[in-house]
Amino acid sequence: MSTIERAEVLVTSPGRTFVTLRITTSDGVVGLGDATLNGRELAVASYLRDHLVPLLIGRDPARIEDTWQYLYRGAYWRRGPVTMTAIAGVDTALWDIKGKVAGLPLYQLLGGRCRDGVLVYSHASGRDVPELLDDVERFLSLGYKAVRAQAAVPGIGGTYGIRKGAVYEPAATELPDEQSWDTEAYLGFAPRYLEAVRERFGFGFHLLHDVHHRLSPIEAARFGKDVEPSRLFWMEDPTPAEDQAAFRLIRRHTTTPIATGEVLTSIWDVQQLITEQLIDYVRTTVVHAGGITHLRRIVDLAALHQVRTGSHGATDLSPVSMAAAVHLDLAVPNFGIQEYMGHPPEAHEVFHGGPTLADGMLHPSEEPGLGVTYDDEAAARFPYRQRYLPVARRLDGSVHDW
Ligand code: GCO
Ligand code: MG
Fold first, then answer.
1. CA–CA gap between residue 144 and residue 163 (Å, rounded)
2. CATH tag, 109-367
3. Cα 315 to chain center, whole Å?
4. Neighbours of ion ligand 2 (CB under 5 A)
5. Does the structure's ipTM exceed the value 0.95?
6. In the annotation, is 212 catalytic?
7. Kindly report the CA angle at 74 between 68 and 75, in degrees rounded to 5?
8. For the chain, what are the domain ranges?
9. Which of 185, 224, 255, 269 would be 264's cystine partner, CB 3.0–4.6 Å?
10. Ligand 2 centroid, distance to 54 Cα (angstroms)
11. What pLDDT score does 164 carry?
12. What is the pLDDT of residue 349?
């Protein structure tokens, strides 16, 4: 029997930080799993290195479900981003190994293709409306069929989702950047620029918008009603995601589709959202929701209730996660859309291979497993740098959801 011989926790910061678990079997097969938790990444590195790696050595790499149950139930302490991201790293690496042993790309092990390619959306942003419109034009001319639009709210310093350099990275400072927030200013401004996007470019593509947990349920209801004429593909995280029952109120008032779940980590955290049909798209991911084994369970529950997938795919999900996401997206019947922001060029010096983009769709690698390799020499050129996500304060100085 082949056994797990080595499990290494690799931390590197090529443009931004990634935590990767690399498992090597006694037969010399190597599997990769992403275990990145932006701004709290070393907690996962320690969870893996100090608590999970000793449990993995000597185990049968083929027993993916059993390993998942062993690590989850065996911890006694349930759920939560650190635990679920660490388990995801192990689970993804074991699926990579299984694909390599079978000589098949991962999507074949998950049931094979359900579609020709994976529809993605990318991020257009601007410091003002003209800059946003230019950015939307850029993505449409690149062939994207779906674009998320965010513009900085005038008069408040800095907000989420606005790209500064070539690639958006919110965890950019050594200590958390303090940004300000004004709900009324946002509610007056955001619906107008979404209208401006539709006026200029029409309705022949999907338009998305991320509210980033900033509104109360009744404010989110007002926002959803207000943007109905712009026919959004979705409004994302209209209110903090952990309050599942709050989505009932939003639902009662608007037909704007709702997506949530990028910060949620288990089937229990999305159960009410899905079974009560309070959302249209579930944004849980391979990396933060316990790996392929657990995310597949969430996706199946969602399918029963006509909820589709719309997995998080920001720059903080490594190329390993993105590859895993695309294999799963290709193979599940209730796929909706995949977020895809790309990565800084340095990240591609460390991670080679992975999905390719053509006509607004991602296509997985046909290599066995995930199809991504890790370059140790390149990684050594990008030592770990600590960076934090920002925090937001209301105009009166009190802390708001970032
Ligand atoms: C998105 C997200 C991100 C997050 C980021 C936090 O929808 O893409 O909201 O951009 O802010 O992943 O690290
Ligand atoms: Mg988001």
1. 18
2. 3.20.20.120
3. 8
4. 210
5. yes
6. yes
7. 100
8. 4-105, 109-367
9. 269
10. 35
11. 79
12. 98
What is the 8-class DSSP label of residue 259?
A: E
| Cα–Cα distance, 292 to 219 (Å, whole number) | 35
pLDDT at 399: 97
How far does Cα 13 stand from its chain's mean position?
Answer: 18
How far apart (Å, rounded) are the C-alpha atoms in residues 311 and 118? 11
Question: Which residues, 6 or more positions from 219, have their beta carbon under 8 angstroms from its beta carbon?
Answer: 183, 187, 239
Question: Average pLDDT by consecutive 10-residue portion of the chain (402 residues)?
Answer: 97 97 98 98 98 98 98 97 98 99 98 98 96 97 98 86 82 92 97 98 98 98 98 98 96 98 98 98 98 98 98 96 98 98 96 97 98 98 97 96 94
Mutate to test the pocket of ligand 1, among 120, 159, 212 (most ligand atoms within 8 A of CB): 212
According to CATH, the topology of domain 4-105 is: Enolase-like; domain 1 (3.30.390)
What six digits make up the tokens of 299? 């996706």
What pLDDT, on a 0 to 100 scale, did the predictor assign at position 156? 85
CA quadruple 189, 191, 192, 196: dihedral sign: positive
The full DSSP string for 137-197 is: HHHHHTT-SEEEEEEPPTTSS--TT---SSS--S--BSSPPEEEE-HHHHHHHHHHHHHHH
The string of DSSP letters for 118-147 reads: EEEEEEEEESSHHHHHHHHHHHHHTT-SEE
From the CB of residue 129, how many other CB atoms can be counted at a distance below 10 Å?
18
Q: What is residue 342's three-state secondary structure? A: coil
pLDDT at 394: 95
Neighbours of 167 (CB within 10 A): 17
Give residue ranges with CB within 6 A of ligand 1. Answer: 38, 160, 170, 210, 212, 262, 312, 314, 316, 339, 389
